[in-house]
C-alpha cells in the first residue's frame, strides 16, 4: 500500500482520492478551505442554496463510470435530471431560440427560430464535430498527453484534415455557418474552456456536439451536491479528508516527491503526491528547483483562461424563465477583446453576454422565490497588468450594470432581488487559491494549446496533477476524466 497525499478537495482531488482509495492506497486529502468542492461551491443564505460555480452538467456517463468503478452507482446517491430545453438564447436582434435537449429536434428548432436552412448548416457542422470527437476523444481527452501524440496524430493525414489543428473555431464557423446568430452560438462554446473563439482551435467544435449528444443535466438540490457525494464516496473507501489545511510546500527527497508541508508546519510524508491545486501554483509556489522552474515558465507562456463575475440572486415572485438562458451582446468581439486584453489592457466588459441559470427546484429556494445564478465573462484578477477586482466599488458597479443590461434585454428583476452575493475573480482566487480566478486553468487559445496544458504525470517522479488546470482541461467531465488518467498512471497499491 502506498501513502498518497492529495492537495485539494475540488472535484478533481476527490475523484482521484476515491479512485486511489478503491485501488488500495492509503489516501489523505488536505484542503485549505473549510469545505470541499473548490470551484463547485455552495453558499446557504436565509433558506436559499446557491451554487457558486457549475450550473450545467454534461457527459454524465463520465461521473457514472467513476461511481461504478468505486462502489454503488451514482443514481443511488445523486439522481440527475436531463433538461428538455437545453438553453433559451436571445440574440442581439431580439430573436429567441429555445434549443431542444433532444438533438434530433434541433435542426427544426433552428429553422423555425432563425430561418430556413440554418438547421442544415448547424447539422453539417455537428456531423463534422462528431468525426472530430471520434478521432480525438480517446487519444487526447482520455489518455495522458505526451509530445508523441502530436506525431501519432500527424501520421494520419485524413485525420488531420478533419481535426484541422491549424484552423480556429471562428474559421471553421465561417465555412459552415452563414447566419451571424449561429456563429455567435458557436463562439459561446469557446468560453466553455475559457477561450477566445478567434484563437481557440476548431476542435472545440466538439463542445456543442458533446452537449447535444449527451444532454444538458441538472442535479436536483444544486450541483454542489456532487461535491458532497464525492466526499462520501472517498471517505467510504477509507480516504481521510482534512479541512482548513493549506499545503505550502511539496517536499522532495532523492529526486522524487516525498510529501507535503502544511502552513502550520506539519509534515505529511507520502510515496505519491497528487496536486489538485492549480498547476501554476504547484510549479510557481509549492515546488522549487529546476523542474518547477521549467514547468512554471511553460505555463507562463500560455494564455490563462478567462474568469467570471457571478451574481447569486434570491429572487422573489420570479418571472417565468427557462432553466438556462443566454442573452447575446451586440458586439461579441468587443467582449473577447476586453477579457483577454486586446486593444488595451484586460478590462471588465461594458455590454457582456449574460447567462442566467434559474432552476425551478423547490429544494434550493423557499416557496414563491427562486435562486438565480447570473454569470458574465470577466478578465482575471490582475492588479498589476489588467483589472483590480478589489478596487472599491468596482464589483457592485459591475453587478448593477449586469442587472440593468438584463432589464434592457427584457428581463427586469431589479425590484425582486431580495438578496445578492457577488463573487468576483478576486474572490474566486481567495476561495480556491486559483491564480487570478481563472475558471479553467490555461485557455485553449493557440493551435498548440492542448499540448501546453500541464501533464498529469509531472516530470518530478512521484508527483501527479489532477483537475481543470492540467490535462485534459477544465469543466466537470474533463476534471473527472483527469482523475481517471491519474489513477491509471499510479496504478494499484
Ligand atoms: C463561475 C463558474 C462557473 C462554472 N460553470 C461550469 C459549468 O456550468 N459546468 C462545468 O462543467 N464546469 C463549470 N465550471 C468549471 C468547474 O467548476 C471546474 O472545472 C471544476 O470544478 C474544477 O475542479 P478542480 O478540482 O480542477 O479544481 P478546484 O475546484 O479549483 O479545486 C482545487 C481545490 O484545491 C484547493 N487548494 C488549492 N491550493 C491548495 C493548497 N495549497 N493547499 C490545500 N488545498 C488547496 C482549493 O481550495 C480547491 O478546493 C465553472 C466554474 C466556475 C468558477
Give an overview of the whole structure.
This protein has 493 residues and is α/β, with parallel strands linked by helices. It folds into 3 domains: 3-40 and 61-70 and 221-302 and 453-490, FAD/NAD(P)-binding domain (3-Layer(bba) Sandwich), CATH 3.50.50; 121-215, no CATH class; 303-436, no CATH class. Helices cover 38% and strands 19% of the residues. It is built from 18 helices and 19 strands. The strands form 5 sheets. A 7-stranded mixed β-sheet has the order 7-6-15-16-17-14-18. Strands 9-2-1-13-19 form a 5-stranded parallel β-sheet. Helix 2 packs parallel to helix 18 (476-490) and helix 8 (169-176) packs antiparallel against helix 9. The radius of gyration is 22 Å and the shape is globular. The chain binds flavin-adenine dinucleotide (FAD).
Characteristic key phrases:
single chain; 493 residues; alpha/beta; 3 domains; 5-stranded parallel β-sheet; 38% helix; globular; binds flavin-adenine dinucleotide
Strand content: 15-25%
Instruction: Characterize the main sheet.
Output: 7 strands, mixed
* CATH fold node name of the largest domain: FAD/NAD(P)-binding domain
Unreliably modeled segments? none
List ligands, each type once: flavin-adenine dinucleotide
State the end-to-end distance.
5 Å
Please tell me the CATH architecture of the largest domain by its name.
3-Layer(bba) Sandwich
Mean pLDDT: 95
Q: From the helix content, strand content and strand pairing, which structural class follows?
A: alpha/beta
CATH superfamily membership of the largest domain: FAD/NAD(P)-binding domain
Q: Tell me the number of structural domains.
A: 3
Radius of gyration computed on alpha carbons: 22 Å
Number of strands: 19
**What is the CATH level 1 assignment of the largest domain?**
Alpha Beta
Strand order of the largest sheet: 7-6-15-16-17-14-18
